[in-house]
Amino acid sequence: MLRIAKLTAHYGAAQALFGIDLEVGAGETVALVGANGAGKSTLLKCVMGLVKPTSGRIELDGRNVIGQSPAQMARCGLALSPEGREVFGNLSVFENLRLGALPLRLTRREEERRLTEVFERFPKLLERRQQLAGTLSGGEQQMLAMGRALMASPRLLLLDEPSLGLAPLITDEIFAIIHQLARAGTTILLVEQNAARALSASDKAYLLANGRIVERGESAALLNDPNLRAAFLGAASHENPAASRLGAAGLTNIRLEKPDMHQMDFMPTFTTEEALHSHQLAGLQWTVRHAFEGSPFYRKSLEDAGIQPASITTLEDLRRLPFTTADNLREDYPFPLRSVPFEQIVRVHASSGTTGKRKVLSYTQKDIDDWTSFFARCYQMAGVTPLDRVQIAVGYGVWTAGAGFQLGCEKIGALAIPVGPGNLDMQIQFLLDFQSTVFCSTASMALLMAEEIHKRGIADRIAVKKIIYGSERSSRSMRQRISELFGGAELFDITGLTELYGPGTGIECRQHDCIHYWGDYYLLEILDPTSLEPVPEGEWGEMVVTTLCKEGAPLIRYRTRDITRIIPGRCACGSVLPRHSRIRGRTDDTIKFRGVNIYPSSIDTILSAVPGLGSEYQIHLTRDQDGRDYMCLRVERATGVNAERNAELIHEAEHQIKKQLLVSADLELVDYGTLPRSERKSQRVFDSRITDEIV
Ligand code: ZN
Question: Which residues does 110 contact at the CB level (< 8 Å), separation at least 6?
């Protein structure tokens, strides 16, 4: 009756169906089984005339029906019971049913006859015939949707996801009706996610994955094939036969497969530097106008610099724009740089730091979507696929890390295990039990884990192949040690900062000699931190960023204080995306310690609030041979304070540091006047951690 040949269809640029061949004979019930997004509904819509295929044939009784309208298809004898029922909630059951026969212009008598038939099949609908459809239960609405389709007395009934969202008992009822319809000779094309149900209810079946038919055959044979059961009913296994019975009984509704990597491409579509530059110019012009029109802060800053948005005509005009700094963000607290109305903000994130110093950034939904998309790109560049299991051991909460890693992971279709930082026992247990293949953390956390794996001698029982780490500098020896102790994992340094969406604004590629940064989302300048003039290409300087499509809190020439350099030319990996070196350090004296940004001034503030301590202190950062970081504070007692109070003072100061900065430091008290003084700014930070850093 229905024959589909070499059918392809697109949604916009995305191909949804790839050369589908399918047949439904008169009187048959044929099931089309596949996961969400496999293309099932698209196929049904093509048949019904709701979506126009790109190529291929759809024949009804040998006649090509491509290009017919849905109303014409209805007159050809097709009726669709759509996914999600789509009953008219404000109309009664009776009125909804009558609509099903509307395109056929039936006589009053014929309509009455069909109504009687439908009510015989669905006695519940008769009971509720005057009730508004919106007040029916999900199962009753499903019956109504099917009844409405049956009002057309279709030769071919298309059922789209009849069990979706229904409780198992109601599903039983719906499938009993499908059985009855089939026995009464109705030809049915049944689309279902629930493979076990659909196979039990049909004569033959097609399994659809990523827009392609991957398996076809007699339903009973498919249902009993142990390989297919394992692959498509998911739960069947030798260890757990009960799970397969559960599947066969229709009590599981299993997502059949993950998205195809070939369809999940997060790399930019352009291939030349010229195309990238014209994309960047358009983004720069948009950003300046958007910030000028939406943010009082930017309007003033741009006007003070004599900039009108219309005067931005080339990428070189970037140099005329005023800078934005972390101080601007703090002054404009709590919604700095906000350039959209509050109604458009869907989220805020904040950087870590002591109270009053937090940088808070606003996000619109588009900002979140963009971030998600380029974070997925990070995973893609590291070679993470939907088959990976990603254990995320970075912080979740108001800071950006956890959210970014999570969103990107789910976007690429991998399995996310959101553990958060710390908790070594649970991390190890999950590495073993879930067989995580990717581990995401800070460099120090990765090192801690590596040592724990080594200590427990389990390197050959875990499955980690890749480690994505960020937010700290790392040395060559540290990377090597992490990789070895993890049993030979590949390491990827990921970059990012809260002001610029969060983590994921760039990542090391598989060549492992650079960071690719997302030049289609932001511009990167490398400037001399003193003169603020560009350094020659390839030389070290301060990283200054300008966003190209960020809505909530755009950045214009934001001084990150991170030091890096541009690597000229194309990477051996072939990507058009530009590159910089790993971050070498900071132009200010911020300390990065175990993943936390610490301003020495905040330590000053904490220490000066402890009575009995003097004003002079030093911060010593060291790394032991295993690569673990330590902070030691050498602090003077105040004048006249006796060394007998050392224990008490140390206890109090360590407690305050831990409480306010969320890191541990060891305190060492010395006599008043023993630390060196200088008339100029004393050196307070002594960082001897990195001796062979890779850049
Ligand atoms: Zn590369």
Answer: none
In the chain, what are the domains?
2-87+153-263 (3.40.50.300), 365-585 (3.40.50.12780), 590-687 (3.30.300.30)
Place of tokens 């808070």: 360
Backbone angles phi, psi at 679, to 5 degrees: -70, -35
Residue 692: count of CB within 10 angstroms of its CB = 8
Closest to 501 (Cα-Cα) out of 392, 401, 377:
401
384 C-alpha vs ligand 1 centroid, how far in Å? Answer: 15
For ligand 1, the distance from its centroid to the CA atom of residue 515, given in whole angstroms, is 8
CA of 3 to the centre of ligand 1 (A): 47
**Cα separations (Å) of 204 from 182, 201, 244?**
13, 9, 21
Written as six digits, the tokens of 519 are 């030049």
The Cα 107–Cα 187 span in angstroms is: 25
Residue 644 contacts by C-beta under 8 Å, 6 or more apart in sequence?
A: none
Distance 572 CA to ligand 1 centre (A): 6
CA-to-CA distance for 355 and 659, rounded, in angstroms? 12
Task: Let me know: does 195 contact 222? Beta carbons within 8 Å.
Answer: no
CA of 518 to the centre of ligand 1 (A): 12
Which are the contacts of 148, defined by CB distance < 8 A and separation ≥ 6? 81, 87, 96, 97, 99, 100
Helix 443-456 to helix 424-433 angle (10° resolution) is 70
CB atoms within 10 A of CB 607: 21
Helix-helix angle 168-183:108-121, to 10 degrees = 130
Q: For residues 695 and 677, what is the distance between their CA atoms, to the nearest angstrom?
A: 34
User: Do residues 500 and 558 make contact, with C-beta atoms less than 8 angstroms apart?
Assistant: yes
Distance 375 CA to ligand 1 centre (A): 16
Q: What is the per-residue pLDDT across 259-301, written as a single tens digit (0 to 9) for each?
A: 444 457 899 988 999 999 999 999 999 999 999 999 999 999 9
Q: Ligand 1 centroid vs 574 CA: distance in angstroms?
A: 6
* 227 Cα to the center of ligand 1, angstroms: 40
DSSP 83-109: TT----TTSBHHHHHHHTTGGG---HH
**Residues 574-633: tens digit of each pLDDT:** 999 999 998 877 776 677 788 777 877 788 888 888 889 887 888 999 888 777 889 999
468 contacts 382 by C-beta, under 8 angstroms: yes
| 376, 406 contact by CB (below 8 A) | no
The model's pTM is 0.58
Tens digit of each residue's pLDDT (9 = 90 or more) over 165-175: 887 778 888 88
